[in-house]
Amino acid sequence: MSKLDAASVARLSWLLSEGGRLWLGGNPTAAEPFLREALALAERVFPDDPDRIVAALNALGLLCKDLAKYDEGRAAYTRALALLESAPSPDPDRIATLYHNLGGMEHARGNYAAGEPLARKGLEIRRRIARDDDPELAADLVALAAILDGERKFDEAESLYSEALRILEAAPDDNAAELGVALNDLGAQCAQRGQLGRAEELLVRAVEVKTRTLGARHPDVAVSLNNLAFVHERRGAEAAPSEYRGALDILEHALGPDHPKSVDCRRNYERCLAVNSRM
Prior knowledge:
Elements: H1 3-24, H2 28-45, H3 50-66, H4 70-85, H5 92-108, H6 112-129, H7 135-150, H8 154-169, H9 176-192, H10 196-214, H11 219-234, H12 240-255, H13 260-277
Helix pairs in contact: 1-2, 1-3, 2-3, 3-4, 3-5, 4-5, 5-6, 5-7, 6-7, 7-8, 7-9, 8-9, 9-10, 9-11, 10-11, 11-12, 11-13, 12-13
């Protein structure tokens, strides 16, 4: 390897690491220039190295989902998947992850019918290659369940959530990030079904797990706080307006006021205030 190549490898690694650190920390806007530069570098310097290009494409896809740049994110995932599936020895683990991510992109934009076959494909591949207690299997179960919730296929979704929680609860500290997602999504389902007591228990725990794992100002915490506020609003609890306000502050700071999550939370907050003012 030449000195130029070695420097480029080091630069690419740093860009992906720094962009990933910012993204995981709940600051996708700050992560964006790092991950865009990473992809440009991989394409320019390593055009014949699909592994590096796939890594950069997948990182950009994850970022675009958080920034609500759904078409660009889907294109990045689709291109990465094509590179993996055309490889001489396709890696089923990475392929399963990309089907998971593609399904998640459709879920984020509300295209549940389009997301279901993608998430099912990812789960099907994962079941063939993973142990029964693999946290990545749990993540795939939760991803499909969330899409099924959107299609109101609640019974199948709840079965998948239960299977995922059995895996994640076996080592809750090790699996805290995925556990928080599972608790949140099942709690949101229970709220949709009018099971408000159970929803509250799950969402309180989701907020606690996510806050401990991600920090109190992370946008994923705000998502669960918004869901908990909805349950409290339905139950007539006084905490609902302040919870909506707290969630909205986090989302607007991290994602901007025009992000779909911010817009949804603001709508909930304003509705709650209007209802309370009439009481």
